[in-house]
Amino acid sequence: MTDVVTTKAPETFEVPEARVTQRDIVDRFGNLIGDSKRIATGFSVRTKILGIVVTLTMVLGLGVTLQVRSAMTSVLVSELDNRGASVASDLAARSAEPILLNDAFSVYELLTETVANHPDAEYAFVIDPLGTVLAHTFGDEGFPVELLDPPAGTSEAGTVRRHFDAGLRVLHDFETPILKGELGVVRLGMSEDRLSGVINGITTQMLVTTIFVALVGVAAASFLTWLLTRPILDLVETTRRVGDGDLTVRASYWANDEIGSLSVAFNQMVGDLAEYRSTIAATEAARTRLLDKLITAQEEERKRIARELHDTVGQSLSSIIVGIAVMGRLSGEEADAQSRELQVLAGETLTQVRELSRELRPSALDDLGLKAALDRYAEDLAIRYPSITTDIHIELSQRLAPSVETALYRIVQEALTNAARHSGANTVSILVIQRGGSLRAIIDDDGSGFDPGVVRRSQTSVGIHAMQERTELLGGRFDIESGPDGTTVYIEVTL
User: Fold this and answer.
1) Three-state secondary structure along 41-84?
2) Which of 134, 368, 383, 386 could be 372's S-S partner, Cβ–Cβ 3.0 to 4.6 Å?
3) Structure pTM?
4) What CATH architecture is 46-201?
């Protein structure tokens, strides 16, 4: 009894394949694009242009060369086949008579002459119907017997065409029957060596031409990139100097093209920037001078108020104190008279204190608003300058912010003071109108005017600059017009 031994196949374990999701493909493609972009943007403009020119020239040159080589090879090989078939047919016709005469030497001469007269002919030989070689052109080397059994070919017009490799060479073998095969066949071998040499020579010439064209393209591209990058580099250098604060530098104008237009626009921008900086510097200088004059005027006003307090209020209070002391030693009618005098003096002192208080800060502005404060100031102005008539028209839909009211009050106060002191005006009109979120004020007088431009350039008028500064602090627009017929101040503020 024979034991049957069975073997169990080893267990196999399947390793789960890693699943590639669509998201992974998108991420990898995005990373590839990002890497390509970083590589492409890591070169200069000159390198990119040169690379594009060289690449296109080489690709086009090699492409044309390969196409021409392929077309030439096809045409020349076809021509070689046609010529080989024709020569083989001619040999078959011319060798029939010597074979019939059993003249092998004449056949040999015919074959040798044919091979000598055709540079592409490699060999020729004649085989009788029994397969015996009657004549050949191989000479002392001996006949290669492998040619007796060549690979299969194609038949066309009685001629069999065969292509086969002989080492590193390609041979075209043509077999033509003699008298329809009754006297044997003629075999002719044609080589592609000469055609390959011609094709390789033309290919080499085209490659040399491609390299020459590439070099010319590199030279032209180098000149082009020099024309393109030089003004760009000049603009970069100019930009760097402008960034360092030199606003006198200008970019060179190279040509009437897009880069030239860019240079013109850049120079215009630098010029505008320089003009703006000059304007800012002049404004800052004017503001500095104005601040100095405002501080000086403020100190002068404080000195005046101090003198007023000392000369008027102080003396009045001293007189009241002395009068009270004297009144204590009087009696009867003398005391009553002294008391009445002290009451009159105290009333005058109170009036002086209130006038000084209004000059410092009108209480009506805080308590009653802009209209009431301007009306009170107009009344005071009419007392000090009886020849001036003031017309005030104010339309406000609501109470303004304290900062706006204070600024407008000081602006109108300054305009009225200037008109009264310097213009000799008889009438001053004040118009303040609020329309939605906009506030407009117009102060007009009929006095003798002045040249606003000269006054602004001279920086001597503290009042006009103070009005302009107050308007600009509110984010508004200030303008002044003046002539022989009077002066008009325009103020517009967005609330």
Assistant:
1) CCCCHHHHHHHHHHHHHHHHHHHHHHHHHHHHHHHHHHHHHHHH
2) 368
3) 0.46
4) 2-Layer Sandwich (3.30)
